[in-house]
Amino acid sequence: MPRPNKSEERRESVLPLLAAEFARGGYRRATTATLARRCRLQETVLYRLWPDKKAMFLATIDHVFARSAAVWAELLQSDGKGPTPAEKILAHEAEHHGEWGLYRILFAGLSETADPEIHDRLRTTYLAFQRFVRDRIAEHRKARRVRTSPDPELAAWAFLGLGTITSIGRELNLLAAGSRKRLLKEAGELLLEGRS
After folding, report:
1. What are the sequence ranges of the domains in the chain?
2. Do 91 and 185 form a contact (C-beta atoms < 8 A)?
3. Nearest residue to 41 (alpha-carbon basis) of 23, 70, 14
4. Exposed, middle or buried: residue 83 (CB in 10 Å: 0-12, 13-18, 19+)?
5. Least confidently predicted of 127-141, 143-157, 164-178
6. What was the pLDDT predicted at 4?
7. pTM of the model
8. Would the CA dihedral through 137, 138, 140, 145 be positive or negative?
9. Integer Cα distance of 59 and 8 in angstroms
10. How many CB atoms lie within 10 A of CB 104?
11. Given CA atoms 193, 80, 179, 25 in this order, what sign does their dihedral have?
């Protein structure tokens, strides 16, 4: 009887380490040797899991959204009383946004958009973030019976922009931790509630 293929399981266990190395060194500077060292594997083993460095990088782009979605799903496992899902996520992000540094993977990918696969994967990832946020904003406004603008579609893009600017503020040491938290919380609340 053939042995079961454990490659998918192994990829899942290695992916956070791979993501951490791409977040630290970017796409261009990360070599398969440094990626293998970070993952505590031989390069040949890494190449059995992914065919090349670009495939590894694409997997980490997917990991950025999957990691956020998992955290948000856990936050939303409650009885539905109190804050809306959008308010829970906003409070969490105001406190923890950027702690893992995974935004660096997306930033590194932006310099590689001439590559069609990286371009498409980034586009898909940003759209997934935008749709998730848009749906939470729409739910929030419906639950609170608030009709405001900008519409959830545009407000969600503004939320992503807000997250991006706080990540830039963190990366370049332009905004202290307290300022980043206030920016996300206060500007986020304005976007969530909109204007009449």
Report:
1. 57-193
2. yes
3. 14
4. middle
5. 143-157
6. 56
7. 0.91
8. positive
9. 12
10. 20
11. negative
Give the C-alpha separation, 189 to 196, whole Å: 14
Tell me the mean pLDDT in the region 67-88: 87
Whether the per-residue pLDDT at 25 is higher than 70: the answer is yes
pLDDT at position 154 is 94
Q: What is the mean pLDDT of residues 52-69?
A: 97
Helix (H/G/I), strand (E/B), else coil: 76:
coil
120 close to 61: Cβ distance less than 8 angstroms? no
* Residues 6 or more apart in contact with residue 181 via CB below 8 angstroms: 94, 95
How many CB atoms neighbour CB 8 within 10 A? 9
Contact call for residues 11 and 56 (beta carbons, < 8 A): no
The yes-or-no verdict on residue 196 having pLDDT over 60 is: no
Tokens of 67: 């990691």
Q: Which fold has domain 57-193?
A: Tetracycline Repressor; domain 2 (1.10.357)
Beta bridge partners of 149: 195
Return the sign of the alpha-carbon dihedral for residues 12, 100, 140, 158. negative
